[in-house]
Every structure is written in structure tokens, then in C-alpha cells.
Amino acid sequence: MKTVYSVTGMTCGGCVNRVKTKLADFAESVEVTLEPPQVVLKSPTADLATLNAALNKVGHYELHAIEKVPPAPKQATENAIEKSWFSTYKPLILVFVYILLVTLAAEYTHGGFVAHRFMPNFMAGFFLVFSFFKLLDLAGFASSYAMYDLLAKRVYNYGFIYPFIELGLGVAYLIKINPLLTNAITLVVMLFSSMGVILAVMNKQKIRCACLGTGFNLPMTTVTIIEDLTMAVMAAWMLI
């Protein structure tokens, strides 16, 4: 028998791990997701009050019984999904648009568009901006990144190093340091990073994407795959 609870107080992958570890003593198996924030207990051995008392020892987490509500009309559900998609990915879209506009403005000052000049500048902006958001909460990023990245799962400290790799690549693209080496490193890093994302999406893991750090609640979807592979394709293009 499975019991499902909603949970409040979780903000990152570290919270998910703490809740899952604490509740493991009270059920045959435990599943915890950040999106949606819920806990699924198989054959629980304790009531709700006992479970919450245990969670209070590791953080400000609280389980809540899920009340059954009648299903929403189909049209209303579709509108809610559409609105949710745009509101969810608005920060990511804005970041890409801003980087694109600045890069195109730089091309305009040169009097024409040159792909092999545009792409390094775009990638410089991408890596510098994305590393900035990750460094705002380095520990939180490392915790979230370890939920899906293949290397960070095994070497937790890699999550603390990765934002600095992006920062270094951003600076390298900006000042044109050894373009061949920079593109080769980018291709390897982004392809490897996308592997963990692809597996997470294929396994339908309901976890937070850490691409913009912990400041935004972005779910792990095909959008993240496209983001990583776009950088890999650009790097490969410039290696040709």
C-alpha cells in the first residue's frame, strides 16, 4: 500500500535527500520529488504526526495529507498547463534573449553578421551568465546537480567545480584564448553534461534543473537537453 503526502519546506536537491533519508526508517521504500513537492511511502509504519516529528529534527519540513478534488475541465487544464510552461521558463527565455540581443548588437557594430564571430561571443555570454547564477548559491547548486549529473552523483565535489569550469570557458571565449582547445573542452563538457540530463528526462525524474542555480524553480525537461546540446553543436561547428 502506498501513501502520498504533499510536503512543504523543500527548496533544492539537498532537501529532497534529507527528507528521503529521514523517512526511510518509517516505510518499506520512499520516493521524494521536488516537482511536485510530494512524498510517496510504500507500506508506511508510522502516522502523519510521527513522520512530521521526525522531519522536524532535520529541517523545516512538513507533510500534509492530500485532499481529493474533482478534476478540472479539460479546457481549463490545458490553459493552466500553457500558462505554467511560459511562467516556468520565463527566466530562462529572458536570459537567452538578453544574451542574443547583446551578441547581435556586437555583430551590428562590425557592420555584418559572421557566424564564427557571433558564436564565440554568444557562448561567452552564456557561460558567464549561467555560472553567475550557479555561484549565487554554490552549495545549493552542487546539491541539486548531484541529483542527475553522472559525475556529480559519484564525485559530489564536482558540483562545486562545475560553475568555475563554465566561468573559465566564458572568459576563454570572451578573450579568444586558444579557440581550438576551448571549443574541444566545451564539446566534451556539454555532451557529458547532457547525458545525465537525457537519462533524467527519459526516467521521468521530477527534479529541479540546476542550469540557473537554485534561484529559479526550473523543472528538468527536454528544454534543458536543448540548452546543453546547443552549446555542444556550436562548439563542434567552430571545430570544423
What does this structure look like?
The protein is α+β, with helices and mostly antiparallel strands and 240 residues long. It has helices spanning 13-23, 48-55, 74-109, 115-136, 138-145, 150-154, 158-175, 179-202, 222-239; strands at residues 2-8, 29-33, 38-42, 62-65. Strands 2-3-1-4 form a four-stranded antiparallel β-sheet, with helices on one face. α4 runs antiparallel to α7, α4 packs across α9 and α5 (138-145) packs across α7. The longest helix has 36 residues, at 74-109. The model has no long low-confidence stretch (mean pLDDT 85).
Pick out its properties.
240 residues, alpha+beta, Alpha-Beta Plaits, 2 domains, four-stranded antiparallel sheet, 9 helices, 9% strand
